[in-house]
Design goal:
Number of helices: 4
Bound molecules: inosinic acid
Largest sheet: 6 strands, mixed
Number of strands: 9
Distance between the termini: 25 Å
Structural class: alpha/beta
Helix content: 10-25%
Order of helices and strands: EHEHEEEHEEEEH
């Protein structure tokens, strides 16, 4: 057993139950509309793929790749879009799907950037949020779990590109020392 991996924070069955709950709320709210799901890669790929298969409404997909840079222990909020949307979202109902909201800086940037493209609506679905770390508050309409400020891996989340394929969400025994290093090297 790899000793980087600590205790399970959220078990597989609890994640799956939450995904079903979120999908049911989304299906309800977007009844009669055509929803555009936008996944933020790489972290959201597993959450998005489970979530979309629980939806009972028609959906289309697009993906972006973003990266945030900064100095010190936290992300500096300098976000770059490394791969933009393929489609025009003007007039569309957009739901951004994210793995985890930490400082909130990445999502704030992406939301503002998307707003300028005049979608009909834009909302966020995030599996995890670290409320104690949020620096740039953002409304998350569909939220899975609030978690403590610990570095977690699994269910799409990585440490140095490892552990994304774990079925549960697990605490990493060692804390990545420098957040900006983490965001550049370990995420997405
Ligand atoms: P922020 O909200 O802009 O600070 O950045 C959120 C991003 O940081 C997420 O999409 C993840 O890629 C990464 N991140 C934050 N916390 C964790 C964690 O505990 N494990 C793995 N990645 C994390």
């Amino acid at each position: 057993m790899d000793n980087e991996i600590g205790d399970v924070m959220i078990a597989e069955e609890d994640i799956q139950a939450k995904v079903k709950q979120l999908a049911s709320a989304i299906s309800n709210d977007y009844q009669g509309k055509e929803l555009m799901l936008v996944g933020i890669l790489k972290g959201a790929f597993i959450f998005l793929s489970d979530l979309c298969r629980e939806l009972s409404i028609p959906v289309k997909f697009d993906f972006i790749v973003a990266s945030s840079y900064g100095s010190g222990k936290k992300s500096g909020g300098v976000v770059r879009i490394l791969k933009d949307l393929d489609v025009d979202i003007k007039g569309k109902d957009v739901l951004i799907v994210e793995d985890i909201v930490d400082s909130g800086l990445t999502l704030n940037y992406i939301c503002k950037n998307f707003q300028a493209r005049q979608p009909a609506s834009i909302e966020i679905c995030a599996l995890l949020r670290k409320p104690d770390d949020v620096r740039s508050p953002i409304e998350i309409k569909y939220l899975g779990f609030d978690i403590p400020s610990e570095f977690v891996v699994g269910y799409g989340l990585d440490y140095a590109e490892k552990y994304r394929n774990r079925k549960d969400i697990t605490v990493l025994n060692k804390t990545p020392g420098n957040y900006s290093e983490k965001t550049q090297t370990f995420r997405r």
